[in-house]
Amino acid sequence: MDKFVIEGPTPLQGTIPISGSKNAALPLMAAAILGDSPTTITNVPKLRDIYTFNNVIRVTGCRVDFDEDEGVLTIDPKNLTHYEAPYELVRKMRASFYMLGALLGKYGEAKVSLPGGCAWGPRPVDLHLDGMREMGADIKLNEGYVIASAPEELDGGTFTLEPSSVGATVNLVLAAVLRAKEFTIKNAAKEPDVVLLCKKLTEMGADIDGIGTRTLTIRKVDSLQGITARNASDRIETGTFMIAAAMHPQSNVTLTNVDVDDLGHFPEIFRETGADITINDSTIHIKAPKQINPTSIKTKVYPGFPTDLQAQWATMMTQANGTSKVTDTIYDDRFSYVPELVRLGADIDVNKNTAHIEGKTELKGASVMSTDLRASVSLVLAGMVAKGKTDVLRIYHLDRGYEDLEEKLTTVGARITRTQQEE
Ligand code: UD1
Description:
Helices cover 30% and strands 27% of the residues. The protein is an alpha/beta fold. It has two domains: 2-19 and 234-420, Enolpyruvate transferase domain (UDP-n-acetylglucosamine1-carboxyvinyl-transferase, Chain), CATH 3.65.10.10; 22-230, UDP-n-acetylglucosamine1-carboxyvinyl-transferase, Chain (Alpha-beta prism), CATH 3.65.10. Helix 1 runs parallel beside helix 4 (98-107). The structure holds uridine-diphosphate-N-acetylglucosamine (UD1).
């Protein structure tokens, strides 16, 4: 197992290119299975979750070729013969559950392992299953697997997502495009990842109304064709580096290859910290504030503040000039990073789904443990402003979702090395 050794504090100065988005790529990869010919996706990051999903897709017989240097992934669904996503792979990555919608949609049959819990508590899939039942599919649970089947045409219907869910919207769209006469999803997610999926499915030949709104109506088409699709740039990586750039008063960072229209309200909330940002086409320039204004946030569905950036935000607020609150309304229990930040010297109390943060605290290097993807990156952010040496253990979480993290940060001045973690 690897760990990061970080020497701080260091200002960040220079340019960081943003990678393709993991969360946007996965639905596009699942959609590729629905085509009758190969689909090529560009701007795909080299990340463990992408390799895992490649293997999930390969189990079905589809051919997957990934040119890692170019970030180009081609999926040829021609030899799809096996309608299963096994537990050994689904347990590694929840989004493998997208195979349920994709396989049910394409072949009318699927056997997909239930994903189980995750590091921050239960993450149910009831809406995915109830939505497919509403569509008319037969859904059974057996020995940890979902067994789904559907005839050539399903009547469809209307299903309301409460709460709105990215994963359920993706799965229901994938299941419906080739099979449901007319299916309406109310309170659908309109995160950029969902919008991109729907647009690309439309290019493949799908009939989807309401793209980018909370109501999606899907009408079955007979077949879909493969396309070439550019994957979005990672909006969470963008937000993470914006936060990194604000945390040291001498930092001055330019982010390139950014999809600025995918950031929702984040840039305007970010400006409240006092950071100076300039946005030009696909470039964002960030100049750190002399002092960070304490800025409270609440996570919301898009275009609100993303839950995937709350841990990083709370970390930045340990360096703010006063008290702030971070409330997660999407996941109540996503604060496993707090005790680790406290080990570095942060003053944070968690009450229900709100972290109360007293700034500014001087952070001092220590050994800390990654617990999940976004928690881990927060510890790296903290390590870069902490005095002395911070060891971030179990960084395999980071390799799931941040491409070349230490190279990117080292290039702009951070002192981070990856070494073997003694057991
Ligand atoms: C996706 C993202 C994840 C992000 C999350 C919220 C991917 C691979 N993952 O996860 O990084 O943190 O969106 O933006 O894109 N819910 C139910 N029943 C369900 C499904 C969801 O109650 O069947 C609830 C969840 O517990 C949560 C809320 O809905 O409270 C939103 O979750 P959802 O949008 O589904 O998250 P994911 O798609 O799993």
